[in-house]
Amino acid sequence: MTLTEEHVREALKQVVDPELFINIVDLGLIYVVRLVPGEGEQADVKIEMTMTSPMCPAAPQLVAGVKRVVADLEGVGQVDVQVVMDPPWTPDRMTDEARDELGIF
Description:
Number of strands: 3
Strand order of the largest sheet: 1-2-3
């Protein structure tokens, strides 16, 4: 299996926001997933993500979850997660399913 951005994004759906109970992909917290050739057959994964607010108390837990699920994927070398606040997160980034679950129309 060749590692793709889609594989990484699908794995990231395992990471659930502990306050909203929705995965971080559907919440729109993942901005960038980039695969960079690493050692041998492996690819390093660089992720830019945000939080729903700058002072999000779940930030350390979410970042740790991202690193864990991506590192567990076959073919992954280093995992680099950068938390960015620009552009700021808005509910517009959420999938329709996530908005429905939270009652945001």
